[in-house]
Amino acid sequence: MDLTPLDVRYQEFPVGLRGYHRGAVRAYLARVAEVMEGLIQENEGLRQRLQGLEEEVARLKEAEGELKRAVVAAERIARELRAQAEREAELIRKEALAAKEQVLKEAAEELRRLRGEIERARQEKALFLGQVRALLEGYLEALRRLEGGP
């Protein structure tokens, strides 16, 4: 059975031969009723506060869950970015090695070509010198004959 402040305030007691003083009983019951009303109001306020706090806890738990999901997603994205960066770095390294090999190959071909040109130039020089020598010797021979010499 629930007891309300109104029940306390208006409670009637049978009057006996040597009963309680009615005014004192009424005053005490009124005081008890007031205390009960205060406690009931305080209890209701605490219930509302508890409900608000429970709602806040639920909201914070939801926010915590979202935050955890965001952290997990950020970690996953970071791992993916790191892996992608490593793949790109490896690709750049391979491209650099291929470019180096191509440059070395082209340099070796250019070196062979230049050596060939140098060799041809030497041969042409030797041929030219031989032709000039032969021409000069022919002129010398012609000069000796013209001078009447041996």
From TrEMBL:
InterPro entries in the cross-refs: DivIVA_domain, DivIVA_fam
One Pfam match: DivIVA
GO cellular component: cytoplasm
GO biological process: cell division
Swiss-Prot/TrEMBL keywords: Cell cycle, Cell division, Coiled coil, Cytoplasm
Compartments, as annotated in UniProt: Cytoplasm
Coiled-coil residue windows: 29-131
Similarity comment: Belongs to the DivIVA family.
Name under which the protein is recorded: DivIVA domain-containing protein
